[in-house]
Amino acid sequence: MVPGVPTPMAPNPITAPVLFDRPLLRARMERARREGAVTFLLDRVVEDLADRLLAVTRGFSDAAEVWSPEELLRSPVAGRFKSITRVGFSESETLSLEPETLDLAVSALTLQFVNDLPGVLAQIRRALRPDGLLLSAMIGGDTLTELRQSFAAAEAECEGGVSPRVAPFADLRDIGGLLQRAGLALPVTDVDRVVVRYDSAFALMADLRRMGATNVLIERRRAPTRRATMLRMAQIYAERFADPDGRIRATFDIIWLSGWAPHDSQPKPLRPGSAKASLEAAVKKAKQD
Fold first, then answer.
1. How many other CB atoms are found less than 10 A from the CB of residue 77?
2. Where are the domains of the chain?
3. Residue 13 pLDDT exceeds 60
4. What digits encode the pLDDT tens for the residues 236-285?
5. According to CATH, what is the number of the domain 22-145+165-196+251-288?
């Protein structure tokens, strides 16, 4: 614990809502590996992760990859670490990490399927040594907004109601607040928007299957979707979200988040009332000049 710095909040004693069927998520990820995973988003994240780490001048000794589907810390960055721990997927969302044992924790495209994200971030924060870094990428924002809208319109028209099909994704402001709540200092978030074009909505859905990213919501509809609804969804998608050449667009927002375990060497905001000059005086002087 660093003097003068608040300790991270413990996970909320109130049970987090269970949105995702994590045993089903594991099964879907394993199916994707068997069928030949589609990895273009993950490959992009791995490349971006390497660039971001190379831009950090401080050294890291012990690192962990949290729940990522494949190795993230590849050459040339892997040589910077004395040890790399790979934390396997957990249905319980409990991380097997000892307190203050890591200088770096990374995760790629997994945190969007966490039921208790504040709790997981707090576990990662506890595992970081002072001045340790969390760097992660997760799906969020307006990801698959086109598919969500097309399914909603088709179901409302064909079945008289709408069922949950696309996960509720966190936005940038929410993530920044969660980093601070977990006790991480200097939180930074940004979005990498990727727009992918497909021949049809069915081609997009085939890719989602081979990403292990099909519907794992607890409240998902259990009965098969009617053929008429699926065809109408694809038609609406093509009408609303196609380019002049007839190919449809699919949006993926990759939210990058980073935060540091507090340390005395880090810049800190001034205490309220400690400023030596007032804003009012500065404004008056500017008007006089």
1. 21
2. 22-145+165-196+251-288
3. no
4. 999 999 999 999 999 999 999 999 999 988 887 555 555 555 555 555 55
5. 3.40.50.150
